[in-house]
Amino acid sequence: MAATLHLLQTCPFCWKVRAMVEHLGIEAEMVQINPMRTKKDLAFAGDWGKVPVWTDEDGTVVVDSTPIMLHLDRSRNEGRLHDASDERQQEWLAWVDQHFSKATVPLLYGSLGAALKTTLRVSRLERFGFFSRRLYAWAGFPVMWGFIARRRVKRDGRTPKALWHDLLSEFTGAFDGAPFFGGEEPNLVDLAAYGYVRSTADYPQFQHLQDHQAGMTWFGEMRQRLERA
Fold it and tell me: How far apart are CA 217 and CA 165, in angstroms?
């Protein structure tokens, strides 16, 4: 039995785990599921009902992105990417999960036009059925914009671009002059942050991040390393 990662192609939490898999060079089967059938397709994982879901070669199932990353680091990498006794690392891992995850929706769905571009792109990338693909593409964007993204943008008070620039500045400012949060080499915090940023890179709205010099320098170096792995 091969190790498997059940995922959605556009899911930021899945991109976190994919970053870890690529970084460690783990051979695993990527199983892309139908977004409309997640609970059915993931019934083997109990009540979780969401992606990502990781299954080891021995059948061990681990759910949720950060626990999966920690599991892979312990089981495949002798825990070299994460130090549970390092309070700074723990604090910033929680910070990335809290702030970067919430910033992806305003960026991708923060205006009616952006939401339409995003749902059309998602409908092409994900494994929808024939009718559900069209339903999501044309009925999903007003829901994502009107009921979720617009409220988050209004509550935060910043444009999605300003929000992301502030987050990238705060994150890269914690590097203390090093190329990565982890110093000369990436650690678990870098991989988690990269996953969130990478999940936005297939959309036109990614251009709003590209003039953040420090953020894109870090992102570019992370991407090159993972693609070489």
Answer: 13
8 A C-beta contact, residue 160 and residue 63: no
> What architecture (CATH level 2) is domain 4-77?
3-Layer(aba) Sandwich (3.40)
Candidates 1.20.1050.10, 1.10.3720.10, 3.40.50.11060, 2.10.110.10; CATH matching 87-228: 1.20.1050.10
Domain-wise residue ranges, the chain? 4-77, 87-228
Angle CA 30–70–127, to nearest 5 = 20
Cα distance between residue 110 and residue 45, in whole Å: 33
pLDDT per residue, tens digit, the chain (229 aa), is 899 999 999 999 999 999 999 999 999 999 999 998 999 999 999 999 999 999 999 999 999 999 999 999 999 999 999 999 999 999 999 999 999 999 999 999 998 888 889 999 999 989 988 778 887 877 777 777 766 777 888 888 999 999 999 999 999 999 999 999 999 999 999 999 999 999 999 999 999 999 999 999 999 999 999 988 6
Give the other-Cβ count within 10 Å of 170's Cβ: 12
β pairing state of 4-7 and 29-32 = parallel
